[in-house]
């Protein structure tokens, strides 16, 4: 039996989707705008975007097919893989919606969201959480960038013992608190309480955002983030793998996104480089018939949301530089898919995700050529299921 791997480059969109205007994202293009900026001598990035390995897998052609524009510096005729792009049918442009659809469950409902008001959270929700958790109160209660709000309210949070509550355009309640002064375990317990209380509002995630530092040196978020997500309402590819008695290894925040259902052995790391190390280690011991599902989050959290074009470009090049290590560990009959869950164009307005097509780059033996436009991310789940010989009742059509 063969093995299968899905690697998610978190937020790596390649052109605004057909329905992007509904989300205020018409014209967004994460890869295209990064590549164009790098070609401009005024960009802080040193020289044109250089992604020879991803380009060799068909990234440039996939991006041109998705957006109608060829990203500068990614042209190559030596393609050694299957390449195409996928549209999202789930209604959100958030992490759970993207990953669940990749795993074969397009989200058919609308998530609950918090309004762009101050305060943004219902008073009865905050009162319930404060009462159950025994808090002196909360700070924030607004839409905000995570790094900006801890810079604004971090010192007051430490001084008063009040955690910082904030949200974004996603279906999410984020809670930030000092990892030492407030306590990491106390923060996680608080998020578990909040998770139960937001269920009635159909909120996708509660995220613990611990930080360290002080007013003199500033505050920095730590790697101990934890997502408390609702489980998918129906089976996904992960459940199919588990029911077949196969081995699953998940890397990064995949376990949290699926509420640890069917996610097998979950391995985390503080950054993309460490997560690639964990991926390589796991590849050595993933048995035949096994499945590895990885998320590399730095593209999104460190550069997309912070609108750092040069930083995003450098992170892409660092990933591309290490990709040959992953390719070298594939067996001849293994299936590798590299994709994304949504966009987060660092040149766009605001700090939220962008509604974009995502690349679908696949390596399977010596096969190469276009797989065209995929009408749902779920085609990737259907393809993995076919490759692994699984019974598949989820969405999608295999491109193999």
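Q: What amino acid sequence fits the structure above?
A:
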């Amino acid at each position: 039996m063969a093995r299968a791997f899905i690697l998610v480059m978190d937020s790596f969109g390649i052109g605004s989707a057909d329905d992007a205007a509904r989300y205020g994202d018409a014209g967004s293009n994460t890869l295209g705008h990064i590549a164009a900026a790098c070609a401009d001598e005024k960009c802080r990035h040193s020289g044109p975007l250089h992604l020879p390995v991803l380009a060799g897998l068909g990234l440039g052609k996939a991006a041109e097919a998705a957006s109608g524009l060829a990203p500068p510096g990614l042209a190559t005729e030596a393609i050694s893989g299957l390449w195409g792009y996928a549209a999202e049918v789930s209604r959100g442009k958030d992490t759970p919606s993207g990953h669940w659809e990749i795993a074969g469950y397009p989200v058919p409902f609308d998530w609950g969201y918090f309004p762009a008001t101050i305060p943004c959270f219902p008073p009865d929700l905050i009162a319930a959480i404060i009462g159950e958790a025994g808090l002196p109160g909360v700070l924030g209660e607004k839409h905000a960038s995570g790094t900006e709000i801890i810079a604004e309210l971090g010192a007051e949070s430490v001084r008063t013992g009040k955690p910082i509550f904030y949200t974004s355009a996603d279906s999410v309640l984020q809670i930030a608190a000092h990892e030492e002064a407030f306590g990491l375990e106390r923060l996680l317990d608080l998020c578990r309480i909040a998770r139960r209380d937001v269920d009635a509002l159909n909120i996708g995630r509660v995220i613990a955002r611990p930080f360290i530092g002080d007013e003199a040196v500033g505050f920095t978020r730590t790697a101990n983030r934890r997502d408390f997500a609702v489980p998918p309402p129906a089976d996904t590819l992960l459940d199919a793998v588990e029911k077949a008695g196969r081995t699953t290894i998940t890397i990064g925040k995949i376990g949290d996104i699926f509420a640890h259902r069917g996610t097998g052995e979950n391995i985390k790391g503080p950054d993309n480089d460490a997560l690639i190390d964990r991926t390589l280690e796991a590849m050595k011991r993933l048995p035949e018939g096994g499945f590895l599902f990885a998320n590399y989050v730095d593209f999104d959290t460190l550069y997309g949301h912070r609108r750092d074009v040069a930083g995003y470009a450098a992170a892409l090049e660092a990933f591309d530089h290490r990709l040959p290590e992953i390719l070298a560990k594939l067996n001849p009959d293994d299936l590798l898919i590299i994709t994304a869950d949504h966009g987060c164009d660092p040149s766009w307005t605001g700090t939220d995700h962008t509604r974009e097509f995502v690349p679908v780059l696949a390596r399977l033996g010596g096969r190469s050529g276009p797989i065209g436009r995929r009408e749902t991310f779920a085609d990737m789940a259907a393809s993995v299921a076919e490759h692994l010989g699984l019974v598949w009742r989820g969405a999608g059509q295999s491109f193999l």
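Q: And what stands out in the fold?
A: The mean pLDDT is 96.
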